[in-house]
Amino acid sequence: MIEALGFSFVQNALLAGFLVSIACGIVGSLVVANRMVFIAGGIAHGAYGGLGIAFFVGVSPLFGALAFSLVLALALAYLTYQNRNRVDAVIGAIWAFGMAVGIICVDLTSGYNADLMSFLFGSILSVSKEDLTLMWIVCALIVAIVGFFYKEFLAVSFDMEFASLQGLNTKFFYTLLILITALCIVATIRAVGLILVVALLSIPPYIAEKFCSKLITLMGFSVLLSVIFTFVGLVLSYMFNLTSGASIIMVASLAFGLTYIKMSFFGKHFVR
What local confidence, expressed as pLDDT, does residue 267 receive? Predict the structure, then answer.
């Protein structure tokens, strides 16, 4: 593996993994704290519609996924904020709509595009300079937004009703959280793919919350775990010629299983 570091595509993959880990660690912590994993899944799978449209009209797949995901995020925020009890039905409908649009557009696109599979299952070893630029921008944007509005996100995450009574515009921050989740998903799909991205958003924070008592430490520990999972997954992918996205998620899933077993026998600790 050491000699592989001399290749530019491996260096790009490592940098991409680091940037993705920062974004997923921060956003994933908020997603888990707000119990919005299913919403993140809806956006991730619905983004397939953007990919399909992009391939059909001949524009950048990432641009298509980004635009479509942001539209889905706004729709989800609007439809679920007032009706949290039926959020599962709303997400299911949008999830199915996005996938249907993507499938139809791919059917109407002549020829088979192998690049589409890398967006579905991830191909971090094929990350381009364009992908890295998007990751840098999204990562910086997420860090800036969450850093600037940390107290507001903290209030919304742990008691939205009380925060609203205190005069906080909870609808705005709820919508903003879903929007940055969409940004994070689009920036991550090259690494682990649309199908697996939810695991990278949810598994590190799930493990981290067992050992952290504050949101800020949860974010930091989640980022660290994401870096470890990504690096180990990349090493396994390179050594055994495996799909990189699946390798990363497999490592994370094994850690998830071990943590669950350990906590089942030795007690649980949750973020408060």
Answer: 59
For 97-131, b/e burial (b = at least 16 CB within 10 A) is: ebbebbeebbeebeeeeeebebbbbbbbbebeeeb
Residue 207 has pLDDT above 80, yes or no: yes
Amino acid found at 35: R
What is the tens place of the pLDDT at every residue in 175-191?
A: 999 999 999 999 888 88
CATH code of 3-264, in short, is 1.10.3470.10
Structure confidence by residue, pLDDT tens digits, 21-63: 999 999 999 999 998 998 999 999 889 999 999 988 888 888 9
Cα separation of 147 and 26, whole Å?
10
Q: Are 218 and 33 in contact (CB under 8 A)?
A: yes
Q: What is the pLDDT of residues 155-176, one digit of tens each?
A: 998 888 888 888 899 999 999 9
Question: Got the DSSP string for 102-126?
Answer: HHHHHHHSSS--THHHHHHH--GGG
Residue 188 CA: distances (Å) to CA of 127, 158, 230: 11, 26, 12
Q: What is the pTM of this model?
A: 0.90
Closest CA to 121 of 51, 26, 204: 51
Round to whole Å and give the CA distance between 46 and 12: 27
Residue whose token pair is 């879903």: 178
Return the exposure string of 152-163: e unless at least 16 CB atoms fall within 10 Å of the residue's CB, then b: bbbbbbeebeeb
CA distance 20 to 23: 5
Distance CA 265, CA 222 (A): 23
CA distance 84 to 77: 10
According to DSSP, residue 82 is labeled S
